[in-house]
Amino acid sequence: MTTRKGKLIVVDEAEETRVPFLRGILTRSLQDTGVPFEDAYQLASDLRDRLAEVDEITTIELRETVAAFLEERGFPALVEHYATPRNERVSLYVRDRGDNVVPFSKSTLVQSLEVCAEPRELLYGVAAAVENWLLDEGMLEVDSPTLMRVTYEHLVAAAGERSSRRYLRWQEFTDTTRPLILLVGGVTGTGKSTIASLTAHRLGIIRTQSTDMLREVMRRMVPRRLIPSLHESSFNAHRVLPRWGREDGTTVEPHLQDGYLMQAGEVAVGIQGVFQRAVQEQVSMVMEGVHLHPALQNELSDRVDAVVVPSLLATIKRKSLRKQLAGRGASVSSRRAERYLDHLDDIWELQTFLLSEADQHDVPIITEREPDEMVRRLMRVIADRLEKEFEGDPERVFSGSAENPA
Predict the structure, then answer these.
(1) CATH number of the domain bearing residue 264
(2) Are residues 166 and 31 in the same domain?
(3) Helix 161-174 to helix 106-113 angle, to the nearest 10 degrees?
(4) How far apart are CA 122 and CA 381, in angstroms?
(5) Which of 88, 123, 155 is the last residue of a domain?
(6) Residues in the chain with pLDDT values less than 70
(7) Which run of H or of E encompasses 278?
(8) Which of 88, 103, 138 is the last residue of a domain?
(9) Does residue 397 belong to any structural domain of this protein?
(10) Residues 58-87, buried b or exposed e (16+ Cβ, 10 A)?
C-alpha cells in the first residue's frame, strides 16, 4: 500500500469548495448504487491508494475516475451512475403496501436478491437493469408489487427460473413476521465468525451471536472448581474429565469427543436462552460457534415459529486447516495461534467427529475456502430451507395474497 504524505483535496469549481477526499463518503455512495459494504469499502480503499500521489482533483475528474475504476473492476452496470452528474440524475421512489414512499435503492434491491446465490456482478446488473427499465418507462414512482414483478422478470432473463423462484420465496418469507435464524457450526480456523458476519450483513440481519462469547460469560459466573470443562478449549476439555472405572478395576481415559460433548452441553443452556429470546422477539439472528453440535442445531429447529437454518463449515484438507490456524496470528495473539497449531491433531480429530455427526443429522456441510463462495453456499442452504415452506408462486407474491404458511 502506498503511503500518502498529505490529504487528497476534492475541488468543486461550481460551488467553490475544497474538501478532503473521504473514503467513507465514497463507500456510502457505492452502497447507494447497490454495492454491499465490504465490496464498497474495498473499492473505495483501492481507489484512494491509486490516487495516493495526487494532491487535488476536481469533482468532475473524480466522477470520471470512479466510473473508469468501476469499469476496470468488473462493475459496468454502475458506470452510468457515476458518469452522470448528481444534479442530472432522476430520482425514483417506491410505495410499499403500507402506503409509505421511500427512495428507490439499488443496495436494498441487491440485498433482496442475495438469497438467489448468484454471482454478485449478476445481482448488481439486475438491479441496474431494473432501475433503467423504470426510468425508460417514465415510472418515477412504483408500488412494491410492481417492483417485485419487474425484478422477477429481469432475474428470469439473467439467471433463470430457479434463481428467480428463490427470490420470490424470500419475498414471501419477508412478508411474514417469522425470524430467520442461521446456525453456523465448525471448529477453530474454519472461518465461522467471518462468514457469519458477511452473511448477516448481506441479508440485513443486525443481530449476531458467538457461542464462544456465551461460554466466556458463563466462565465468569461459574468458577473452575465447579465446572472445570467449561474453562478449557473445546478440543481439550476431555483432559479435565474424571476417569471411568470398570468392574475389573481398570480405568478408561475420556475421549476428546466426551469433553467436547460435555462442554457443548454446558454452553447449550446459554445458546437455548439466546435462541428463544430471538424467537419470542421475532428478530432474525446469525449464531456461530463450535458448540453448535449438529444434534443441537436440529433440536433448535423443531417446534419453533421461525425459519431455522443449520450448517457446518469445514476445512477438509489438513494442510489448509494448518494454514488457516497459522493465519489467525494476524487477528489474535501469536501465542494463541501457536497454541492452536500445537493442538492441530486435536482440532482435526474434533472436526472429523463433527463431520460425522453432521452427516448423521443431515446438517449441510460447507467446505469451500473462498469467503464469497462460502457465503453463496450458505445462501443456497437458506434458499433450500425456504423451499420447504414457501411456494414462490409469482401471482400470489405480486398480488400480496401470500399467506404465512406457519
Answers:
(1) 3.40.50.300
(2) no
(3) 110
(4) 19
(5) 88
(6) 1-6, 32-34, 36, 77, 80-90, 244-250, 328-335, 400-406
(7) helix 256-281
(8) 88
(9) no
(10) ebeebbebbbebbeeeebebbbebbeeeee
Name the average pLDDT for the chain. Answer: 86
CA distance from start to end of the chain: 52
In a shared domain, residues 39 and 111: no
Q: Which of 209, 361, 187 is nearest to 257 (CA)?
A: 187
Task: Pull the grid cell for residue 270.
Answer: 446459554
Render pLDDT for 311-359 as a digit per residue (tens, 0 to 9).
Answer: 999 999 999 888 888 876 555 555 677 888 888 999 999 999 999 999 9
What are the grid coordinates assigned to 348, written together? 482435526
Look at residue 257 in the predicted model and tell me its pLDDT: 92
Beta-carbon neighbour count of residue 186 at 10 Å? 26
Domain count, the chain: 3
Over residues 51-103, the pLDDT tens digits come to 888 888 888 888 888 888 888 877 776 776 666 665 556 678 898 877 888 88
Half-sphere exposure of 237 (CA within 13 A, CB side): 25
Q: Which three cell numbers stand for residue 339?
A: 497454541
